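User: Predict the complex.
Assistant: Input components as received:
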Amino acid sequence: MGDLNQNNDSFEAGMQGMFSGLEQTADAHVWNNIEAALQQKSNRIIAWWWGGAAAAVLGAVLSVSLFNGGPYYEPRISNYKSINDLDYNACPDSSVLEWSNNPSDNTREHVDQIEPSSIHESNIDPISQIAVNTITDHLPRVVDSKEGQKDKVMKTSFTDSPESIDKMSIAGIELAWNADSLIPRDEQIIKVYDEDEIDWQDWDEKDYSDWGIAANLGSSNSSEQSTSTFGYQSEGLTTQDNSMAFGMSDQRSILQELTYLSPFVVGVRGNWRFAKRWSIESGLSYSLLPTVGESFTNGDKRINRYNDHFIGVPILVNFNVIDRKRFALYNSQGALIEKGIASRNTITTYQGSEVESKQISKEPTQGWQIGASVGVGAQYKINETWSLFVEPRVTSWLLNINVQDNIRNRQAIWPTIDLGVRLNLD
Amino acid sequence: MDKQQLIEGCCKQDIRSQKALYDWLHPQMLGVCMRYASDRDQAQDMLQEGFIKVYNKIDTYKVVGAFEGWVRRVVVNSALEFLRSQKNNSNVSFEDESIMVVDHRANAQDELQAQDILKTIQSLPTGYRMVFNLFAIEGYSHEEIAKELGISVNTSYSQYHRAKALLQKIIESEKKTVVKTAV
């Protein structure tokens, strides 16, 4: 004690020595208060989890598709208008039809390039028979003309043999084509070729402005017939009036150029650790799959925007390869199951550059999408309850059950990077 | 339960581990708080706040240095925060002021005890008390104290020396009393 007054150093050293061993026992209420505060904190955490909305916001998982590869184009069929009239000139002799878009060009020179034996032009008398031919290919193409110029034709193939192609199918195509074409019906000639003898080349897919397409064709006396043309969703065919000589469908379709936009996915995930390095993860997700369809009719442009909404449940198993106090590196595998809930279709029609009309329709979306998914992730723990993660992942949508056409059944493998906040339940 | 298990248990918010940690370290930490507080009740309040912070921050503890030292730092910081947040001390003065120190020598029958110096420290104005504790006992530099308390280095220096001079005076006076009694 006497050293305390000697000099500066000894004073501080004396003080430190004096108080280093100072201990006192606290009253019992101190621990009780601490315990109550800890319990209160624990209750708050549980309240956060069960709070629903708050947890949903804080636990939002944003999946961003970074490797989408750009818009994905695909023709798609949509109902357009009825056809109630029939007239045609056709020859059912082969599986390929040529359609001219030039009203005055009834004797196109490139036809001469084809072996004469394979060229037919004739009129067909209407007959009463059931035809169920289904169009499997109906695409605009370019054919070399005799002068080396490009000429537009429409290639059409059928599931049935060329011999069985009947006038009703051809007539249907013609009618559908006429609806959009500038070709006066009485000037139109349908030419049928042997497909193998024509030099098809790729067509500029964007130039559809003066081309139409017929789909959902065929004829039947039955009240309803389904076709699956091009593998797209198609409407059932209905013969409403059997007095129509050919039993044609009262619906027709036009070609659209589709752009599938990147899906937007948001959701919540909870993670429960069941072993030292293993954990199960699940939750809820919402997916928006937007598709934009563009079509031209008689110079008018129509833009259809389809927004398909899905609710999903991910079921994932994670394994921590590196597991530190704050940081973890893990792999993740499992299944993603999504159920269609609603669809919104906005149709905007343009007359030139002016919006002519805008229609919005909503309907329930049916079907399921099931995918298998693997990924690796890095996680940073903010605290015991919440952590941030980044998770590159590859998902293959294996099953699309009764689901309307969307980007997930157009592209088999989906690389994405999931970013988010994880709620740790262990 | 060894120390490592205790820490891991606390990280997982295991209440038994938290209680075991409290039982182990709270007497030392209350001793620390007693130096910063003006009385035992206030020290116990500081202890309570300090341990809640320890439990909330324990997952930030890195296995470098003694765990007890880490807990002590958290408790000291909590005590300083407590003093700053006290309504009566919201304007903790670091200005020069006359120090009204309660002389506890009347209670000292034989020799100056740590408890007596402790009571003297507790009777110091809050600002002086914080500076004195941080410099003389925790080993902070005046620069660190100035940064921690938001005061100038000169203020820290002058307050410490005023507090120290006062304590030395009391200690010297006590020594004479002890010698006189012995004679």
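The first helix of chain A runs from residue 8 to 20.
Let me know if you want any component modeled separately.
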